[in-house]
Design a protein that fits this description.
Oligomer: heterodimer
Largest sheet of chain B: none
Strand content of chain A: under 5%
Distance between the termini of chain B: 54 Å
Shape of chain A: globular
Number of strands of chain B: 0
Largest interface: A-B, 59 and 67 residues
Strand order of the largest sheet of chain A: 1-2
Radius of gyration of chain B: 25 Å
Helix content of chain B: over 70%
Order of helices and strands of chain A: HHHHHHHHEEHHHHHHHHHHHH
Largest sheet of chain A: 2 strands, antiparallel
Number of strands of chain A: 2
Number of helices of chain A: 20
Distance between the termini of chain A: 50 Å
Order of helices and strands of chain B: HHHHH
Chain lengths: ~500, ~160
Amino acid sequence: MDTLGHIMNGFNVALMPVNLWYTFLGCLMGTVIGVLPGIGPAAGIGLLIPVTYGMNPTSALIMMAGIYYGAMYGGSTTSILINTPGEASSVMTALDGYQMAKNGRAGAALAVSAIGSFLAGTFGIVALTILAVPLAAYALKFGPAEYCCLMLFSLAAVSSLTGKSVAKGIISTVLGLMISTIGIDLQSGQPRYTMGVPELQDGVGFLVVVVGLFAMGEVFSNLEDHIKGKAEIIKLSGRLWLTREEWSRSIMPIVRGGVIGFFKGVLPGAGATIATMLSYTVEKRISKTPEKFGSGMIEGVAGPEAANNAATCGSMVPLLTLGVPGSGSTAVLMGAFIMYGIQPGPLLFEKRPDLVWGLVDSMYIGNIMLLILNLPLIGIFVRILYIPTGILLSLILAISAIGVYSINGNVLELQMALMFGVLGYLFRKCDIPLAPMVLALVLGGIMEQSFRQAMTISGADPTVFVKSGICITLLVFTVIMVSLPVILPRLREWTSGPEDVDS
Amino acid sequence: MLTDKIILALTLLLAAVYFYATAQIPSLEIGDPLGPKAFPILLGVILVLACVLLAVEIIRAKPQPAVEKDAASADSAENAKHLWQIGGVVVWTAFYFWMFDRAGYIATTTVYLLALTIVFNRGKWLANILTSVFFTIGSYVLFAKILGVVLPTGLVSF
């Protein structure tokens, strides 16, 4: 009953005029960021954190979350109209969405993605609300050793699932962890790897890395594509609504996509992108006309779009209840939490139920706002696409400069951000995933602390990590995760035999 | 494949540097059985293991390198040109940052944006000049005056 009271009270918080305004602002900016090809939710949140200094944490986090799920709505627009996915999670939408636009059904494609996003998003928040309480209660039993294993599992899952090569994923992870060890060691007071630079004593700023890797690095990559050639924008045509036939074809893919998306979102490493791929594959498999996929099938838009929105809700589950994000974007969101002095996790449900439930409940409202923003007003957002890419990318670099400088007013941090920008660009070129590095950077400090606490409690006996059932289970899953890319193809070969050649 | 080998070499180098830097941390073991070095050493070991894994991946992937060589070389010439352009942007950005608090936000940002847009939005002089000037002034007003973000004033300020 107490929990129900907290959930209801969350609506009071979310419906406060100031929070409604920030929900709206977050959703609006999220949509814009989703539409813009050169910038994703991670960069968007990173760039806007400095702006929100001085705001109360609840409002700020409501806005940040709005940017995160809002970007999932906006991402589909560019996929459909210019065949350039705004976000990785919109890649599958482009396959059939762009073809629908070419066939003159752009309006229907945009409508189904907005409606599908709304339905699946709302389902996702309901599921998040239901799942959060028992999971947070369970997580309260975790000691430092269990936490350390949980973070290890999360990092292993993200390293192994986000890129093409596990080795590169692990390298990216370890790099992030190493960056997190720079600065004064909290337990012994020893400076580590500061090379005598006073600015490094507090460690490498999280925002410096995020803005560098995601905003600047992304701009450099996009500049390169821009030099290579320009995409053509398809004019918005057709009524922004569905025919009865299109609607009846879309509803089941939305339901399936929502369920797949939510559960994929909860699991670390999988996240929105893999959820959309899975949803698309499922729709293609069960379709009576799989050969038509890729030529403008509405099922291929409805399913993945529903999946990626449900996945964003799902990915809020581990972030809020365990304090261990499972993806790059939620890692940035966690960084934002920490900057406001708020440690997400099970204790937050006891200490600040107003914040947790205010945030969750604001997502219901945000989803309704996004539906309105994305259906009747989509024409306005499409205009953003007409901003010349050369100008847009230049402006993002200038905004990055403001964002980083505003943290400490330090030019050295600007140069460091640029270094991370170059690193991000090179990583993209070499197929090294960035998400593991950011996740590792966010978790690194906490992970080292819990590792050392566990060892201190046990008197430097490493068997503490295999003493509890939770630890053993998590470690086994960690091993499975890392070896998954090796096992999976073998398993598929073994089960399906030689006749299946399509994968 | 070549890039993967370079990554392998650089990562091993990084691990070596990290191990060396870890050894330099003075360690006073009071109350903390592990001290500030243990976790970093563990990280270094994992990084070396990841290198081994990468080496295995490189060796495994070897049987299928023979793609059309002509297309690849034409592509790489094109790629090299792009790399120079990106390199130029990076150097120009580094210079912008270096001047940032010397000449102030408004002066540096206007010039920085003007140069970038002239190169990447070629020929649209009016749009480029208007964007550079108005974005700079607009963002200065928004961030420094309304949101209270500290930006360097330098040469031009109001």
